[in-house]
Amino acid sequence: MNTFCIPFFQELERDFELLKCTYCNSIEHSQKMIFFLEKKLKQINKWVKTFCFANEKDEIYFFKELKPSLVSKILYYKHILKIESTLPPSKKGKRKHYIKALNKATQLGKENREFYEYFRCRATYSDTNYFIRRPYKDIIRDHSMLLFFDSKISTSHDYQVASLISADMLINFLERKIDEIDNKNGTNNYGQPVNYSWSGTKIDLVELIYALKHAKLINNGNTDVKELATHIGKLFNIKLEDSIYRVYQDIKIRKTVRTKFLNSLVDSLNQKLMEEDS
């Protein structure tokens, strides 16, 4: 699987992050993203259609993690395109529009309550049933997507995983849009002025943000890194979102220790603990 699949998704993520910086208009941006991602989906479907995985572990990883990470982005941008292309002109109308979309987004992927709970709990005991390809006759057609089901490129539940991930991203987007409309006086959700300042360097904060994202500690990892940077930047009065991808590339090409800041945090905490123990 590694000779094609893993490099494919690594390249996909690199290109995706670069493309995200290219377009400002949300409608144009969504259209370009959908075109790019659907092209990638066709490529990976063509590959997996004739590929036999070496073991069940690899197949489960592909259909539980890799493919949904791509499909969820397509679903997300299609939702964004629909929402933004029907946005009313007035501030009041926009807020109502976003709230209506948010209410719908919270219900996405919840048709199958049993699987919804399975996914949220990060369970694995039924992975062989959910994420191993099976003949069409063995699939229970309980989802409209399965009317056009192709058992060579899909399992019974990889699309549902993608739907849940896209719902998380969409909720994030809509909550941010509503906050932007409501946030007139530069206050936080508690009505108090934001008065924190980041005392470290910008590259230190970017290192921390990517660590939080990839450790899946915020929204189970289903958070757009640029949106996360925007929120954290607002908290600490530092603008990050325009340069976060470039700064991340600087971290990746470090010749010595890549996680220099995170290591210094560990050292600082350990030092303090030792001082308090002595």
Word description of this protein:
The protein is built from 11 helices and no strands. With 278 residues, the protein is an all-alpha fold. The chain folds into 2 domains: 5-182, no CATH class; 188-278, no CATH class. The termini are far apart.
Could you provide a short overview of the structure?
This is RteC protein. This protein has 278 residues and is mainly alpha-helical.
Task: Note the beta-strand portion.
Answer: under 5%
**From the alpha-carbon coordinates, what is the Rg to the nearest angstrom?**
21 Å
Per DSSP, the total helix count is 11
The average pLDDT value, as a whole number, equals 83
Uncertain runs: 185-194
- Helix-and-strand structural type: mainly alpha
Number of strands: 0
Order of SSEs: HHHHHHHHHHH
N- and C-termini, Cα separation: 52 Å
Percent of residues in helical segments? 55-70%
Which term fits the overall shape? globular
Major sheet: none
What's the structural domain tally? 2
Organism: Xanthomarina spongicola
Protein name: RteC protein
Pfam families: RteC
InterPro entries: Tet_reg_excision_RteC
